[in-house]
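Deliverable D4.2, example record:
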Amino acid sequence: MKKSNSILLLLIASLILVSFSYTNSEERNPILIRHDKEEAEFFKLAERFEKYICHINLPDCEGTIIADQWAISAAHCVIGIAEKFNSGEKHFVIVDGVEIEVDKVIMYKEWESLLENDSILHDMAILNDIALLHLKTKPNDARKAKLYVDEDELDKLVYMVGKGDKGDGLIGVNGNDGKQRGATNRIETVSDKWITWTFDHPDTRTKYLTEFEGISGPGDSGGPAFILKADTVYLAGISSWQDVKGGDEGLYGVTEHYTRVSKFIKWIHEEMAGNCRVSDDILRVESKPNAVDTRPKAIYVHPNTLQQYVGEYGYKKGGVTIKIYTEGNGTKLFTSVPEQPPYELVPTGEHKFTFKTLQGFKIEFKNAENGVFKTLVGIQPEGTYTAVRN
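Output generated by the structure prediction step:
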């Protein structure tokens, strides 16, 4: 595994999505589904679990609410939060559409080495890819998943949920539309730290093939694998890495590895109760008392003004079309490009906007003619690009 602070080209070299990818292609997490089922069925499956989900907001990665003020995710997902705390910044996750501040993260220190030495990841068996997040306030409408404490996971049906990249087993990863999907699979192997399953082709006769067969993928690391018992939702696994077996990620035949929650029950309860001893193995990072809220400060822009920015802008150098549109009765402005999720733009100055979930990325509109703007200028850490209204 390597840390890729990069990284996906959205508006041609424009938007950096912070994510983690593994050097031997053993990572990246969207929800990818079997090709012979209607997508609508996977959307509907996800709705059942939406209120259990905590979006880590970096901008990707997921987590699960497990107590009034606690969420759980993958350790490699919260390194970015720890970095923000150490830099004196606040961090906010999203639960049921509401931003909630995180004031502490807890994880195994081995993941801290990712910042300096990728070679530790040659042996995934030694890693504990699990982390706790303490929320400053209790989410109002969230639901709490129970922890799966039994060690009988083998052959159990699991439900996965995520907003990562879309695709199916025939084509693999195929962009991101920002929509949440659910999928199922069945646990095939259980080891000390991992529960695993394979993305089975519908034509296979294996007993592990499920009706809504799927796996996780880019953007869904840290997301849940739920087991249902008598309609009670239990968290059994946390999305960690994918073994592509020498091929491409997201295709039929790859194997998913989820952190086995039942092996960490004692540690989770002790940490939440504040009873864990000081240890050289555990990293606990808290938000500083004078931490700064780095979220963009919005100003009010009338919907009639927002409408002047709406349209499609072409970036000729890369042949990319950038779409600007409104939602929320015309009160919110968004941008998107093909095969990528939409991003909300926050107005911060006259004709100037900042990306809500991406620090350091801005858009400015210029050259108004006849009530519409003709030019879009994108500012990012790597440089500036200009797109012209089509």
